From TrEMBL:
One of its GO terms (molecular function) is methyltransferase activity. It comes from Nonomuraea fuscirosea. GO terms for biological process: methylation. InterPro entries: Methyltransf_25, SAM-dependent_MTases_sf. The keyword Transferase applies. Keywords: Methyltransferase, Transferase. SUPFAM superfamilies: S-adenosyl-L-methionine-dependent methyltransferases (SSF53335). This is Methyltransferase family protein. Residues 60-154 form the Methyltransferase domain.
């Protein structure tokens, strides 16, 4: 899809469903997505907490803020100065009402104009959104924007699928390879610090054997046919998932990456 078509797609989607399912794996329903986000939040707080940042004094930028989930994670970690940003008017209007103490920008990350002052943020997050930039040059431009926004020595926290298998391209999402992403990050001025699983079983197995991916995907869709069954499935799987994200080194789905601005 062209950028304008993607923007319209997300505008309609978030206007009609400003919940975890609207910004997450919609086919699995809101209840199951809520449990997925509980695990995501735990991993985010653990990994960012390990950095030892003075968040009470730091300026933080979160891009692709959606429903504000990661704005809440930064706040829980002690950040006081937090700016949110989203591509869509639907999200920005709701975020502004939900987070009146934060500045919320309507921002095209690949073409931000003068909305972001260069080198003004100590920490930046781009969670669960970069793989939705389906044009490769716009993806690189978005990373360059993040590089300009981050102070030298500052931190970028992002999530991606970091494929070891060949890249996968769709209308609304492109899953790039780990080498492609790390090269693009390097070109934008970032050095990779570490990478950690964010989910293991509770999301699409995009970097797994195709047979397993199809079987497990069918299982997840089957157990989330209704909100009631999705709630039960989420309650049963999330304790397993919380353990797995601590003990496995590589995930077949979404991972979190910490980078440092050179």
């Amino acid at each position: 899809m062209r950028h304008t078509e993607l923007k319209d797609f997300w505008e309609r989607r978030l206007e009609s469903d400003w919940t975890e399912s609207g910004v997450g794996y919609k086919q699995l329903g809101r209840a199951f997505n809520s449990y997925m986000y509980l695990v995501r939040g735990e991993v985010f707080r653990r990994e960012v907490g390990r950095l030892g940042l003075d968040l009470a004094a730091a300026k933080v930028l979160d891009v692709g803020s959606g429903t504000g989930f990661y704005l809440r994670q930064w706040r829980a970690l002690g950040a006081r100065s937090i700016t949110g940003a989203d591509l869509t008017k639907a999200a920005v209007e709701r975020l502004s009402a939900r987070f009146p103490d934060s500045e919320i920008l309507q921002l095209d990350l690949a073409d931000p104009g003068d909305l972001i002052e260069p080198g003004s943020y100590d920490a930046v997050s781009a969670m669960d959104m970069l793989f939705h930039i389906t044009d490769d040059e716009r993806y690189r431009a978005a990373l360059r924007t993040l590089g300009r926004a981050t102070k030298p020595g500052g931190v970028l926290v992002l999530s991606e699928n970091f494929l070891h298998r060949p890249e996968q391209r769709g209308d609304h999402q492109v899953n790039h390879t780990l080498p492609w992403i790390t090269t693009a990050l390097g070109e934008a001025g970032f050095d990779v610090v570490r990478r950690a699983p964010m989910l293991v079983l509770m999301n699409a197995q995009v970097d797994a054997n195709p047979v397993w991916r199809k079987l497990w995907g069918g299982f997840l869709r089957g157990v989330t046919l209704t909100e009631a069954t999705g709630r039960v499935a989420g309650a049963l799987l999330s304790p397993v998932e919380r353990r797995l994200v601590r003990v496995v080194r590589e995930s077949p789905t979404t991972e979190l990456m910490i980078c440092r601005r050179r």
